[in-house]
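[job 4471] stage=fold_predict status=RUNNING
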Amino acid sequence: MEYKDPNKPLHKIIEERAKERPDKVALVYEDGRKLTYSQLIEKSKAVAKLLYENRVRKCDTVFLIMFNRPEFVIGLLGALYAGARVVIVDALTQKEDLAFQLEDSSPKVVLADKEVVEREGETLKDYVVLDEEALNKAEGEHEVVVGYEDDARVFYYAGIAGRTMQVIHSHKSFVGAIMPLVQAEGINENDVSLVTVPLTHVLGLDAALLSALVSGGTALLLKKFNVEKIKEMSKEYKPTYMVAVPLVYQTLMKEDENFVKELGKSLRWAMSGGAYLPPDDQKRWEELTGKPLLQVYGMTEAPQIFATTPQKHKIGSLGFPLPGVEALLVDPETLEPKEDQGELLVRGPQVMKEYPDPEENAKAFVEVGGKLWLRTGDILAKDEEGFYYFRGVRKRMLKYKGYPVFPRDLELILMKHPCVEEAIVEGEPAGELGQIPVAKVKLKEECKGKVSEEEIMNFVNQRVAAYKKVRKVMFI
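[job 4471] inference complete, writing structure tokens
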């Protein structure tokens, strides 16, 4: 399938859907609030006006740190209408992690819900902060014309070197992360998406939420994964697809198989991403629902690059390249092309614009066969039918509950402790949770016997989000 590039930024695509069906419900929140397409665009333009009143101009940075809620969506679209680049940060980010990202991105305005403001007030005190109440009170409208290659969104993620840095996407690659999946899966105005994944991650934002909004469908938005809320919303609104991490499907099947069977009556398909999906869980879901559990594969630097579809589906496979995506397997050391297994290189509309560090860009982008490719750091295999399978990682990363955790980030914090001479963090298998971070620490001679494993662990854990916490420390 050929990729059809809309050649317009995300907010303008959704605005087109609003003109086509202004009274169609675009968003339903778990507390019962609803936004039609016309209300979504009206509120977003009002937020753009509010940002303008707070000195945000074209290409300035807006920092968005919110849990899943309607204000996240109008905040994001409002920042795009204002011509800003939006730094999207997990609402669980705290203290040193948060302080680093704020200092590094230098935002004009921070959009944060009250929960975050109350928790991180000290870190946010030097910034202009607008909470959900301020966004809802915004009036008027404002819009800046943006270029397709202008910066649109930024995530903080670990590059090939394994340390956290900005991953910068243009409007073109933002749209390019969503539309190939929409085209391949046939998502349309009749679809209803169940959104359980944080919008601060591409799986939740692109694959679950925005895939519905660019198609004129409806998104059912949960603040976080909650079985009872899923049951309530599914019973009333009948979702036709859902995109979630494997743990969501495992939990639903464990807690209520009868509900899963009932859910299968409205679903056309479900999709898993963000972590390893055991084939037995995939088979069980399909047996219970009678509908395919597809897989999607990508990364922050290149969201949604492979997927399976209801028409082309295989248990255990990550799928095949989405429209517009070129894939190449190579020897990780020599970059010589390989037929059946190797490190995956990709080109496509969803590939990031750049890292801010030229040295990291030089590591991430390589020339092979006269073309520039993004190194994924993942080892994949391909079968004779063109389906791809995950085989391992070249980059240092582990997954906890579907969240990526980068050992180097934790090691850098450990090295700040005055008693730590050396430290290495590794992943330990933890069943359905994925892996837990375990720190092996060599203490300075003068500190031996004077500091405990618990003290070292607390030193790290009070500085990072809950999912990044070190779960075990060993002195070696």
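[job 4471] summary: The domain at 398-475 is CATH 3.30.300.30 (GMP Synthetase; Chain A, domain 3).
[job 4471] exit 0
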